[in-house]
Amino acid sequence: MEERIAFISLGCDKNRVNCEQMAALVQDAGYTVVDEPEGADVCVINTCGFIDAAKEEAIAVILEMAALKQQGALGKILVSGCLSQRYREEIRSELPEVDGMLGTGSYTDIVSALEDVLSGKSGEYFGDINHTIEDGDRMISTQPWTAYLKIAEGCSNRCAFCVIPKLRGKYRSRPMESILAEARALEAQGVEELILIAQDVSRYGKELYGRYALAELLTELCKLDFHWIRLHYLYPDAITDELIAVMAREEKIVNYVDIPIQHVNDGILKAMCRRGSKQYLTKLFHTLRQRLPGVVIRTSLICGLPGEGEAEFEELCTFLREERLERAGVFAFSPEEGTPAAAMPDQVSAEEAQRRVELVSQLQAQVMDEWNENQLGSVTEVLVERFDEEMGCWAGRTYADSPGVDGTVYFTAAGEVPLGSFVPVLLTGTEDGELMGEIDAWEA
What we know:
Layout: E1 4-9, H1 13-28, E2 32-34, E3 42-47, H2 52-71, E4 76-81, H3 82-86, H4 88-94, E5 100-102, H5 110-118, E6 123-125, E7 146-150, E8 152-153, H6 164-168, E9 172-173, H7 176-188, E10 193-197, H8 206-209, H9 214-221, E11 228-232, H10 241-249, E12 253-258, H11 266-271, H12 278-291, E13 296-303, H13 310-323, E14 327-332, H14 350-375, E15 379-388, E16 393-397, E17 409-412, E18 422-431, E19 434-439
Parallel strand pairs: 1-2, 1-3, 3-4, 4-5, 5-6, 7-10, 10-11, 11-12, 12-13, 13-14, 17-19
Antiparallel strand pairs: 8-9, 15-16, 15-18, 16-17, 18-19
Helix pairs in contact: 9-10, 13-14
């Protein structure tokens, strides 16, 4: 076939994996996958529809592709993912430039959808979001030394502010043998950093095996030839002693945990339908710091949930000052239609929620700056990712930095440093919130 297919993936890395699966299916069907939409016969836009900002980004990209289509620089537009799952009718009526849609239950129907739109039909596929095919080949879109491995799909937590269960279905773990087979394939491709992802990796296996099985899965993955294994995301109520013990025992599992807590005030947590309490979170973080030396904790926080007054907000700020979590993504509450939180009384204005986001972000910036300062003079292992022309030096990440969300280490070296290698870097300074350093006693 001569047809060229471009993919644009928006939102989370779970979305990225779905896009990689679609690209592999398309390539196997004989189409040519291209990097740029300009000149393509079809552009597949894999969207996020989680919060307002994500919806706005997705619509902006669709309109950008529509402009290319109008100019004759793009053939067809196919929209997949959470936005199409959530707003099928609205896309039909308000975005006539879109030629076809796939829901979140139909990623594996991509080839049929392409055949439809290329033949002038309206290709629309909306399968069962609770029964999806997660196995199969992928066309890895990350740098070759890093890959994501999705171990579960969907979510059953039903947080009051979140629409994901309605878009992705109930939580369902992949069988361990399927995950390990995919991991072995990634190992054979030369992947060095394996990042386990799901909406909640800590709950892995519960509905499939009747027990939390992440510790068992990690034990098997650590037998493979990966250098780093990273976990996204661990919900606090399902972090077991067995899991912590495996993380402490296995050197390949980096001491970096992404634990979305969202808030710490007990009343707000209850309103969010979150399990646990501030006391529980405090004890959990202390346990992690005690048993995982040098652990870096990342979290997600929501400011402005209905009912969050000044006292509740100050309680959150006090907790952050005391616990000094090294990383945090801070978001303003987004009242998503169809969620319980959208209909709650005592709504906080968007302006006030944003003000609180900025205050927490400033607080966290100070914590991060102090953490960086404390690293100076130490030697740390860095995964080399590129030579930064603007900075005039090499750039990479430490165990403390997940790709796309955390920081970068910039360092000098006397000669060429292989991309994808791990090198010891002496940390000597900071610049604009990033660590600077130099190669320490390393030879190619």
